[in-house]
Amino acid sequence: MQFKGLYTAIVTPFEKKGTAIDYDAYAKLVELQVQGGVAGIVPCGTTGESPTLSHEEHSELIKRTVKLVSGRIQVIAGTGSNSTSEAIELTKAACADRVDAVMIVNPYYNKPTQDGLFEHFKAIASVSSVPIMVYNIKGRTGVNVEPETFVRLKAVPGIEAIKEASGDLGQMARIQQMAGDRFSMLSGDDNLTPAVMSLGGNGVVSVLSNLYPKRMSRMVAFYLAGNFAEGNKIFYSLLDIMQAIFWETNPIPIKAAVAHRGLCASDLRLPMTSMSPGRLQEFLRLLDQTGADA
């Protein structure tokens, strides 16, 4: 499988007060991404509020995503956990649902050693029938997958990509230098996309593309073609809103944005709460100024 291009970390729309998943709205969101030309979508990630999904909801959402996409783009299902055994079960279920790949976040809260991280990813890879993307995000998990650990992971069959969201470009350069011959590296931060791709990265797993799949698909395509001048024109036209979608904890702002566009309700599940009123007004003004996707 080739990991290259724009992947949308898709939101999970809920009915009133975050009760049930709104599958009608979700189907429209998925189709928006397909028509927007993205390479793939990533359900059940942080942006999709995976920590508050039940195992039944997690499985059903992935099944429906695969069915809705129907092979037109890639589906990379988030199946990570801070419990290796739970991540294995979620991965097995996603494989049975015929996803194209799975994304495994580095374990959060329990802060394993580098040996523990290596064994965690190795154990999951041993049972996965699809390629694995390792998701490295120290800011949310409290532990960093060091470049040297990625070098060790080169020997593990099935691990093929890295979503790098450490925010450390120096580390990303080292990973690319030491393991870029084995793994595709994707930016985990919208606003670092051109920098990561200039280092040899292959694309981005994006939050903003929930709203702007067409514009961002063109941007990433320019970068992949080596045309950074044209890619940067699009990048800078979106930079302010790229930064604004992280004014509060993701996915609070992006949920407000898709709701403002009439794509789904803004409801989140606790402990996530709605955007603060003053910030929301400023955010929506900026969103309107940025304009529609085209």
What does it look like?
- The chain is α/β, with parallel strands linked by helices and 294 residues long.
- It has one domain (5-290): TIM Barrel (Alpha-Beta Barrel).
- The chain is 45% helix and 13% strand.
- It has an 8-stranded parallel beta barrel with strand order 1-2-3-4-5-6-7-8, surrounded by 4 helices.
- Helix 3 (84-96) runs parallel beside helix 4.
- The two termini are 29 Å apart.
Q: CATH class, anyone?
A: Alpha Beta
End-to-end C-alpha gap: 29 Å
Cα shape: globular
Helical run tally? 12
Question: Gyration radius, to the nearest Å?
Answer: 18 Å
What order do the helices and strands follow? EHEHEHEHEHHEHEHEHHHH
